[in-house]
Amino acid sequence: MPSTDQTLPATASASAWFAGAIIVGTVAFNAGLAFLNGHVFPTGATVVMASEALLLFAAGLACRNYLTMNHVALLGLLVAYALALAATRSIAIPGTPFDPKSARDIVIPVIFFLLGRAVGDIRAADRIVLFVTGLLFVVALLEYLSLSTYLSVFKVAQYYIARGTLEASSHSLNVSEGLMVSGVRPEEQGRTLLPFLGGHRVSSLFLEPSTLGNYGAIVALWGAVRTRMTRQIYFWTILGALALVVLSDTRVAAFLALVGLIVLLLPPRLTTPAVFVLPFATIFALCVFAAWTGPVNGKLEVEGLGLYDRLLYSGRVLMSFDIYHWFGLNVSTAQTFDSGYGYVISNFGIVGFALLWTLFMSLRGRTPYFLAFRNVMGVFFAALLCISASQFTIKLAATLWFLLGVLSVAQEPKLAKRFGTARTQLAPPRRIERGWFGTPAGTAPELSVTNKFRRA
Q1: Is the Cβ–Cβ distance between 211 and 396 less than 8 Å?
Q2: CA-based nearest residue to 119, from 66, 70, 54
Q3: Of 16-25, 354-363, 409-418, where does mean pLDDT reach its minimum?
Q4: Rounded-to-integer distance, Cα 211 and Cα 423, Å
Q5: Residue 427: in which H helix or E strand, if any?
Q6: Among 63, 55, 54, which residue's Cα sits nearest to residue 16?
Q7: Distances (CA, A) of 287 to 294, 315, 341, 439, 448
Q8: What local confidence, expressed as pLDDT, does residue 390 receive?
Q9: Which has the minimum average pLDDT: 85-94, 161-170, 192-201, 377-386?
Q10: Roughly how many angstroms between the first and final C-alpha of the chain, as a whole number?
Q11: pLDDT for 423
Q12: What is the rounded CA–CA span in Å between residue 39 and residue 22?
């Protein structure tokens, strides 16, 4: 009898090895480019964009047999909407360049979600996650124990100058000891997670610590949901993920991992409506917070780098928007990478953001575990958008959406050994699976478990 974790027939499944190589590529390509930039040939923004495009093409190729007309139509409509807004801003505002980056931000979630569904093997996803986490931990340990060796290989600051993220100045080369600017905690702040480790915030293959910490939080929550599914503790996955959070000293990621664990323990019927309204309530709260601290008066900058200051900056960006910004028809003059909601609204408009969020919350799976994990990722998105837009980068988003896709087609684990009344039988896929991201026609019937426990 086949494993209940196998959800797609062989003809519809993408190669788990190929998918794993793609996920490793999304995590490590920046480190690879940094090595090339420092030792082989200069790399710039064009090379970075080409690398991302190649990874997206590979992911699309891997799930090509799984794509349906619904998938293509939905992706086409979303991309057309993003490009139409970008073109409108470019035409209506003199001097504004046409920037298709927002379209890429839409393509990444759709393609990697479908890649996960096409692979359809949750145990293969476990192996991919464990391998990537282990790889990140090994490089992180090298960086922590021998920073000079790490920097001699990757030359982080020079790479970010080459791609245009940092200014080409002696300050950029010297700040944070050659790491990304956020690579060392200022002395006045100090490390929060295990202070005895010192002010160095480990970056590993991501080259900057925040993404490493956020990745660790996602993987820790993945380990938690898999523990609930199998009733077996995913010890090494969770331990490795938490080690990455601690080494990177990402306080927000640690907090989100704790909150996410609480959300996982609550029934999805309670968390789903709360998560659905969470980003809109957060936008309102940020605006109220900024207004409470006083009028903006054209000054958006804040004095410190703490959470209070970052939330204040995000609220000030939103308060500076006029009606055209809110509908995505004007380019924000403020720097919005540290204000995720400002970035999303200025690129997609509040209407587009509401549509995208509704599509996300309408995703369905074959088990309550998917709904729980989807809701946890919803909390992750809504909270992180207060201070960052990093969750749109392929190096973090690829893994997140891949795991969501795999989990969406996973079935209930066997319960026969634990519940004497359980029996396994063939049943057609649940109706909840039909829709834009539903299983295509012809999918083999799934194995479902029926017993008194599930009927209750």
Answers
A1: yes
A2: 66
A3: 409-418
A4: 44
A5: strand 423-427
A6: 63
A7: 11, 5, 11, 41, 47
A8: 83
A9: 161-170
A10: 27
A11: 36
A12: 24
- Measured between alpha carbons, how far is 355 from 344 in angstroms, rounded to an integer? 12
pLDDT at position 306 is: 75
Q: How far is CA 260 from the centre of its chain?
A: 14
The b-or-e profile of 405-431 (16+ CB within 10 A means b, else e) is bbbbbbbbbbbeeeeeebebeeeebbe
Q: Compute how many other C-beta atoms are within 10 angstroms of the C-beta atom of residue 47.
A: 16
Q: What are phi and psi of 427, to 5 degrees?
A: -150, 150
297-354: pLDDT as tens digits: 556 666 666 778 888 889 988 998 999 999 998 888 777 777 899 999 999 999 999 9
Structure tokens that stand for 378 in this block: 């919803």
8 Å CB contact between 356 and 385: no
Beta carbons of 228 and 261 less than 8 angstroms apart: no
Token code pair at residue 397: 């988003």
* CA–CA distance, 100 with 107 (Å, rounded to integer): 11
Q: Measured between alpha carbons, how far is 217 from 201 in angstroms, rounded to an integer?
A: 16
pLDDT at position 203: 96
> Hey, which residues does 448 pair with through a beta bridge?
425
Tokens representing residue 362 in the block: 């309408």
Amino acid, res. 239: L
Write out the two tokens for 337: 């990478």
Quick: pLDDT tens for 124-156: 999 999 999 999 999 999 999 999 999 999 999
Over its C-alpha atoms, the chain yields an Rg (Å, rounded) of 22
pTM confidence score: 0.86
Q: ∠ at Cα 349 (347, 353), nearest 5°?
A: 95
Residues 21, 42, 53: CA angle, nearest 5 degrees:
40
| For the chain, the helix, strand and coil percentages under 3-state DSSP, each to the nearest 5 | 65, 5, 30
Residue range 52-56: average pLDDT? Answer: 96
Mean pLDDT of the chain: 84
